[in-house]
Amino acid sequence: MTEETMLILDQLRIMNGKIDHLTSDMAEVKCDVAVLKSDVAILKSEMAEVKADVAVLKADVAELKTDVAELKTDVAVLKSDVAELKADVSDLKREVVILKKNDQRQSNELRKIWMVLENEIRPSIKIIAEGHLNLDRKLNSMMKMYEQDQLLRLRVTNLENDVRILKDRMDKGAV
Q1: What is the widest separation between alpha-carbon atoms in the chain?
Q2: HSE-up (13 A, CA, CB side) for residue 144
Q3: What's the CA gap between 53 and 101, in Å, rounded?
């Protein structure tokens, strides 16, 4: 064999070694591709799940948006109600101040009335009551005298009747 042939054979052996190496690398790549295909299939199914989850999330977000819109409306209503309540409370505070002033005035008027009652009316009533008691005693005394007068008048009338009867008898006896 010639040197050239030997060289070619060496080259072929080297190439065979490289081809064997490439074949084993290719088998490894095929294995890796199979694993990748399996991973891609898993990723696809997981991606489908993610898409389904995203669809659910989108629906939830849409629902949340409507809920937030309702909440904003409710908050706006609450704000207007709070503004009304603040105005009402402010009005009530003003009215309470007025009522306190009126209460103070009424308390002062009541004190004045009480003072008049204590200092003027009660003593006057006491004087009138004392005078009334004297009048009552005098009336009782007068009533007793009136009763006695009436009794005396009745006796006088009886006696006058008796005298008339006696006179009539005497006049009849003299006739």
Answers
A1: 228
A2: 5
A3: 69
